[in-house]
């Protein structure tokens, strides 16, 4: 199992597309965060804790890690290496677990690097500007939520890749569902049911992204409910992707 | 040793492989032949667990492929030379495969040298010609120093030197006591290296056994005769049940042996300049054996390209 895991990590390290997306997932929020530290907070006080502000960027990083998850599975099909992977490791459950663990490792490492890149320079910048701020304050939960959200969306991407077997289809589903379709569907549902709070049933916007929010308004799901709801949503795709991967001819 | 028993695989209503059974013996090169769409690649994929057969089993030295620990050390395979990420270097391509089976990086370098790719080890696969990809595919097959080697069209895209090298590799592997199963459309090449043949058509077994046995069963035989008194000899041979086909400088006699023709000529004082038994090529024998099971047949060039008459 260790060998298969090492192999999966090596595969991700040795393709340009995955490296670019992982770097974008980390550097993009880090750059925006640094620029925010330089130019914002003219009143001399950062309203939120720094970690809460990092949480605001987490959905972007998570979606890009989801794309890495997609590539982790679809590149195997598009390049034909899936046949070699399964010839080298005929136990498909082992291959699947290695891919899932790989995405968890990538998510945790990305989250760690993102936090360092966001928090360390911004503290120096804000101190030099005499801006008062909290690093973590009451928002320690956001730190763990960020890792959980990134890991879950990376798993969602991996599963979508296994279901679609092609990058365009899986990436479209991963990006269009939370950014466009979910808003439209739940907007229509709120009109139909005359309930402005229907969005709490939206798996990604209403629950997944909500995990990293420092505030929970009344009427929204609690953090734990959101975690269970979103995990359940991702689990459905993991189950479907795993079943197809195990049963389909390579 | 590979034993394939009653292998059956359908895609929808089409049976790609139909109750196929054969074996591949250690120390011998077994050629796997069949027309396009006859089920060769499907059979190989089923053997390696890539496709799930509807029925039947394949065992490698008594074990199913999925039950083998570190399978690359037992079975090496080349199914498609294109199965490599174009953005990875040749060495990295082999390294990720080696990692799955605990094969060392030094072995990766050794196989790269073995296939003559040590100078291109750090070149990306996307820049390789088809021939180089075939060599890389062979390196993958040999990575675990396996006892069984399965190769699907290994000489595709290789230059004459590469083809000869592939042939020598296969012969060498068999001489070391390994079981080698190789599918190829290059029948002349296969006839030079194969000891046994497995011939299939529309998923069914047509013939299995030593190449000499296949030739005896399926290759045409005739007797070439050149004689200044050919017409007289032909008349006598036809009377004995033979048939005659005239050629430029003599003729070919069918359905009669060279000994009988020689006896007839001697008994009738007929001068012979040539009397030689002829055997058809493996290609002709293969075409005759699989004629009934050819699924995709092209038109002759003249039929396709003939200009319409006004």
From TrEMBL, chain A:
The chain crosses the membrane at residues 20-41, 53-74, 95-122, 142-164, 171-193, 223-245. It holds the Pfam family ABC2_membrane_4. Keywords: Membrane, Transmembrane, Transmembrane helix. This is Unannotated protein. It comes from freshwater metagenome.
Automatic annotation (TrEMBL), chain B:
Keywords: ATP-binding, Nucleotide-binding, Transport. InterPro entries: AAA+_ATPase (IPR003593), ABC_transporter-like_ATP-bd (IPR003439), ABC_transporter-like_CS (IPR017871), P-loop_NTPase (IPR027417). It holds the Pfam family ABC_tran. Coiled coil: none annotated. GO terms for molecular function: ATP binding; ATP hydrolysis activity. Residues 2-227 form the ABC transporter domain. The keyword ATP-binding applies. Belongs to the ABC transporter superfamily. This is Unannotated protein. It comes from freshwater metagenome.
């Amino acid at each position: 199992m260790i060998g298969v895991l090492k192999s999966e990590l090596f595969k991700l390290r040795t393709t340009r597309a995955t490296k670019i997306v992982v770097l974008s997932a980390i550097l993009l929020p880090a750059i925006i965060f640094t620029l925010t530290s330089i130019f914002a907070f003219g009143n001399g006080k950062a309203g939120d804790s720094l970690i809460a502000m990092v949480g605001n960027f987490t959905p972007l990083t998570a979606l890009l890690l989801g794309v890495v998850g997609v590539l982790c599975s679809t590149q195997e099909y598009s390049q034909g290496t899936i046949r070699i992977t399964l010839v080298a490791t005929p136990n498909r459950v082992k291959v699947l677990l290695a891919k899932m663990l790989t995405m968890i490792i990538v998510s945790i490492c990305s989250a760690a690097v993102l936090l360092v890149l966001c928090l360390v320079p911004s503290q120096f910048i804000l101190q030099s500007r005499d801006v008062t701020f909290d690093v973590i304050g009451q928002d320690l939960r956001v730190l763990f939520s960020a890792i959980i959200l990134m890991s879950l969306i990376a798993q969602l991407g991996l599963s979508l890749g296994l279901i679609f077997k092609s990058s365009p289809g899986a990436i479209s589903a991963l990006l269009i569902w939370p950014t466009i379709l979910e808003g439209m569907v739940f907007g229509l549902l709120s009109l139909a049911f005359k309930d402005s709070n229907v969005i709490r049933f939206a798996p990604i916007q209403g629950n997944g992204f909500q995990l990293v929010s420092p505030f929970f308004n009344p009427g929204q799901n609690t953090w734990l409910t959101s975690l269970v709801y979103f995990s359940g949503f991702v689990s459905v795709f993991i189950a479907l992707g795993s079943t197809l991967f195990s049963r389909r001819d390579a | 040793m590979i034993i394939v028993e009653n292998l059956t695989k359908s895609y929808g209503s089409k049976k790609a492989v139909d109750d196929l059974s054969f074996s591949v013996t250690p120390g011998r090169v077994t050629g796997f032949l069949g027309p396009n769409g006859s089920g060769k690649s499907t059979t190989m994929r089923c053997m390696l667990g890539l496709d799930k057969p509807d029925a039947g089993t394949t065992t490698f030295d008594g074990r199913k492929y999925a039950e083998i620990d570190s399978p690359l050390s037992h079975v090496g395979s080349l199914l498609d030379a294109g199965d490599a990420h174009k953005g990875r270097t040749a060495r990295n391509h082999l390294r990720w495969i080696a990692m799955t089976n605990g094969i060392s990086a030094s072995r990766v370098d050794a196989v790269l040298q073995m296939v003559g790719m040590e100078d291109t080890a750090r070149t990306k696969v996307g820049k390789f010609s088809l021939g180089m990809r075939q060599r890389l595919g062979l390196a993958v097959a040999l990575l675990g120093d396996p006892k069984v080697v399965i190769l699907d069209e290994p000489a595709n895209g290789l230059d004459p030197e590469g083809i000869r090298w592939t042939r020598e590799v296969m012969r060498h592997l068999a001489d070391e006591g390994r079981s080698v199963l190789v599918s190829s459309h290059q029948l002349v090449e296969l006839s030079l290296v194969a000891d046994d043949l497995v011939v299939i058509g529309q998923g069914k077994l047509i013939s299995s056994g030593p190449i000499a046995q296949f030739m005896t069963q399926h290759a045409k035989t005739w007797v070439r005769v050149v004689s200044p008194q050919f017409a007289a000899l032909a008349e006598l041979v036809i009377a004995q049940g033979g048939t005659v086909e005239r050629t430029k400088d003599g003729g070919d006699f069918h359905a009669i042996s060279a000994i009988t023709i020689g006896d007839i000529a001697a008994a009738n004082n007929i001068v012979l300049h040539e009397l030689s038994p002829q055997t058809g090529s493996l290609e002709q024998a293969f075409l005759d054996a699989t004629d009934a099971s050819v699924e995709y047949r092209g038109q002759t060039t003249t039929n396709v390209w003939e200009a319409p008459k006004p």
